[in-house]
Specification:
This protein is α/β, with parallel strands linked by helices. Helices cover 48% and strands 12% of the residues. About 5% of the residues have low confidence.
Length: 281
């Protein structure tokens, strides 16, 4: 026996259908029309229900929105990933989606080179790369620290000191699509400058790590001197690019995972941002 709620629904549905049917021309009135109208009503109802569900703020939606706004540079100056989103960020940075996003950046940079670059032949065409999470990945370090998530009372949140200690071991892994792009740029005859916020005392470890990962043939690796420790990352990197421009270099492109690597004066013809919601520099 049908419930009272079901009977009410059928009565309301019949009113809707009656209104729709009266709007039809008499000669087009058929069971086919009625079935089509019924299907349309059902689809509309499901659509309304889906819209209502979409208004609910879920944990997943919240964290994906946070990550998205980091990439848009709407969220800035954060010291760590929100604890409730650390696991979500970790899953993304270890996923095929992240690799696909990196590949798209590499493809767009390659397309730009193919369509726009012409070697002048005066040894002044240049390209700039950052190091961390551009050429080399620090994901293994952040994974070890659960991407900052407090999993128990013994959790050790990542900080700059522990990161640099890890960097000194030369364990950062290669980012494959960036290695391919690096080699393509090198083969076209551009000078490659690597500008990093890493301190000068990590030079030997950085060179060794880059070389073991497959990078070689760059023009200069520029690291932060002690007296530059109090300068913010964007000002430091911008000043290094300014020096290159003053030397007559034409900067065709910059690739980095931080906005501080791309913004500022003396920028390149094109800047390519890699995804990195793990930290803000």
């Amino acid at each position: 026996m049908a419930s009272r709620a079901s009977l009410w629904f059928l009565w309301l549905l019949s009113l809707c259908l009656t209104t729709e049917i009266l709007a039809l021309e008499n000669d087009s009135y058929s069971w086919s029309n009625i079935l089509q109208l019924l299907e349309a009503q059902c689809v509309a109802k499901r659509g309304d229900e889906d819209l209502e569900k979409g208004k609910e703020l879920t944990h997943k939606n919240y964290c994906e929105s946070w990550r998205f706004n980091v990439e848009l540079h709407n969220i800035r100056d954060f010291n760590s990933i929100p604890d409730e989103c650390a696991s979500s960020v970790g899953k993304y940075m270890s996923s095929s989606l992240y690799k696909s996003d990196v590949r798209r950046v590499a493809d767009e940079a390659s397309r730009f080179l193919t369509n726009s670059f012409r070697l002048a032949g005066d040894s002044r065409d240049a390209w700039v790369f950052d190091v961390d999470d551009t050429l080399l990945s620090t994901v293994p370090f952040y994974k070890k620290h659960h991407f900052g998530e407090i999993v128990d009372c013994r959790s050790d949140p990542p900080d700059r000191a522990s990161l640099e200690k890890w960097m000194a071991k030369g364990k950062a892994t290669v980012i494959d699509d960036m290695l391919s792009l690096f080699r393509e740029i090198n083969s076209k005859g551009l000078d490659i400058f690597i500008i990093s916020w890493r301190p000068e005392h990590l030079r030997a470890a950085t060179v060794d790590n880059l070389f073991k990962a497959g990078y070689h043939g760059w023009t200069k690796l520029i690291l932060r001197c002690d007296e530059e420790s109090y300068v913010d990352a964007q000002s430091y990197k911008s000043e290094q690019r300014k020096k290159l421009v003053e030397q007559g270099y034409r900067l065709w492109g910059i690739v980095g995972s931080q906005w501080s690597s791309l913004n500022g004066h003396s920028t390149a013809k094109r800047a390519f941002k890699l995804p990195n919601p793990m930290y803000y520099l």
